[in-house]
Each structure stands twice: as C-alpha cells, then as structure tokens.
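Would you kindly consider the sequence and fold I have copied below?
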Amino acid sequence: MKKTGLSLIVMLALFQAAQGAEAKWMTDLPKAQALAKEQKKLLLMDFTGSNWCPPCKALHQNVLTSKEFVDYAKDNLVLVVVDFPRPNNLPAAQQKANNDLAAKYQIEGFPTVIVLDSNGKELSKQVGYNAGTTTAKGFVAGLHKLPKPTS
C-alpha cells in the first residue's frame, strides 16, 4: 500500500511538472497584442483545426509543445491560438473573432502560423507542416532570424 501511494505521488508530481512546461496560449488577439507591446515580444498566431487536422496535431505535438519551443516562447513570444474545431463548439463571439482573423490574414489552409511584431506588422507566414522536414529546433531557428521588437 505504501508503494502504491508513493507511486501515485511521484506520478502526480511528474504530471504537474509536465503541465508547467506547456506554453500559455491566448485567444484574444487585441489583448495579446497589448501584452506583446508591453513585454516587447513578438506575437505568434497558430491557425489550427486542433481536433481534426492531422498536420495541425503533428505541429502541436512535435513543435509547439517541445521544450525548445516552450523555452523560446517564454522569453520571446506571446502566443495566440485561432482554432477551428469540428464540430464547432466555440462560443459565438470566439467563433466570429476567429473567422474575422482568418479572413483578415487570408488563411487558406491549416495549420498556418503567422508571426507579427507588437504593432501588428506581419513578419512571417508559414502554411502547412511537414513532420519529416520541420523539427522543433529548425522552427525555433527560423524564429531567431526574425527582427526583435523595439517598441
């Protein structure tokens, strides 16, 4: 019984540590832009079909939850997820905001990752994800090449 209890405590601690390593994603672009400006960070938007799009799931699993990305994001990015789940169970206001963003940024496929400066200027746009060619290390290396925020 003591071993079972100790095992459960260890498993819970490991689970909590893993949860703490995840990046924090916002869903409100104006709030995210204000935070990016305040913290002098870039803003990364992930347009995704989180529960139905295989490349979106692969990008999330292989890159966006990787230690390399999470460590980089913590100090350099404000993250926004723009999700289009199926069936669409988002609140109406969020669904409208996501649809408006997809129209504004001319999203033609999922996933699409867009990086903005804190003033909203588009710095980078990547459509699609190929797990065979894009690693977390390579993805972060591409982010390092973008201009750093100054305001």
Summary: Confidence is low (pLDDT under 50) at residues 1-20. The chain has one domain: 26-144. The domain at 26-144 is CATH 3.40.30.10 (Glutaredoxin). The two ends are 58 Å apart (CA to CA).
